[in-house]
What we know:
Blueprint: H1 2-16, H2 19-41, H3 45-48, E1 50-52, E2 58-60, E3 71-77, H4 84-90, E4 94-98, H5 102-110, E5 116-122, E6 125-130, H6 139-159, H7 163-170, H8 185-219, H9 222-229, H10 232-264, H11 274-277, H12 281-307, H13 315-336, H14 343-348, H15 355-365, H16 370-398, H17 408-418
Parallel strand pairs: 3-4, 3-5
Antiparallel strand pairs: 1-2, 5-6
Helix pairs in contact: 1-10, 2-10, 8-10, 8-12, 8-13, 8-15, 10-12, 10-16, 12-13, 12-15, 12-16, 15-16
Amino acid sequence: MKRFMIVLRYEMKEYFTNKAFMGLTLVLALLGAVALFLPRFVDMSGFTGVQVVGSGGAREDDGGSGDGEESLYLYVDQAGVLQEEALTGMFPEARWQKAESVDALRAAVEAQEAEAGFVVTGNTEYEYYVYNKSMMDTNTSLFDQAMKLFYRMQYSGQKGWDLEEISAMYDVPITVTEQILNKDSGSNYWYCYMLVIIVFMLIVYYGQMIAVSVTSEKSNRAIEVLVTSTSPNSLLFGKVIAGAMGGVFQMGAILGVVLLSYQFNREQWGGMLDMFLHVPGDVLLAFSFFGLGGYLFYAFLYGAMGALVSKTEDISKSVSGLMVVVMGVYFFSLFQLMDVDGPIIKVLSFLPISSYSTMFARVAMGSVAAWEIVVSFLILAASIAGTGILGAKLYRMGTLRYGNPIKISTALKDLRKNE
């Protein structure tokens, strides 16, 4: 135990005195906080729908643009069907003006004097002019609705019909009151998606760091000194536990700052990021336990894979099989988020290779009994212990073996012979 604590303290010191590690943690946390505090200092009402008032509170935006300016929209009505009053109602942030001709409209748009232009060539036909069309451009969809309205008005007038009465019949408002008795999967989907990605990145990034650390010690032959002063088991467990603590610190600091910043500024954002950042406490708790467990499970294997090679350039070959498993579980888990109560994800939530992502997804989006969570975690904990023992044996066997990379199948055969 004393040797393990020495290794653990040394490895922890390597993480927390590393300027790049601490600097990256601080920079990412600050960037996340600054981004989420922006609505308090910058008028983002056009994006969030909420306008900052004074030094604190917020009120719902009245529909105008954030800076009070209206965009100029030009039109040429060759069919004689447009009504500016109706267009103003459908485009509340636009100022409409009739152009002298199509050429004048086109020239104004090209000179960026007007935001856009519409040339109505028939009762149901028009041309749309814009200089640079953004991905969020909804002008044509809104103008389509306006053209349909004008057509209905013209047609109803010719037939002597009451358009308001017909519209009231077709567009009768329906009132629905949802009573969600368990989980709202639609609302919870995106933050589950985000958490699955985070734990995947944690496993791959820090697992790779552990493998590189082990291989580097072999390549510079420092391992020969280390194994004479302490046991291979203490070395591997110290590296893995230190990596887990470092990863949890970094990810916890960044995620904690982001979540707390959003909760503090949630009103200013109008709740629009709830699907990503408004994570319930029980989901965060399940994520913490299963995410950390999954990381430890794979970290021991990454450490063992690093001991099976002598050069850092061979690490990719050694961990390729393990990476295939991690990637397969990652993508399969994401696909199964659409059916969290299905039989496949229920089985995956009990397997140690996948429970780190699927169980907290079931907690967030599906129906899961308390005993299922306990049993799944016990299986994961037992698997971590088993993987740790196996990883320590592979590590002990591979530390002083140099030359070509050792295949995992060969390593396992050698272990069975020694036993």
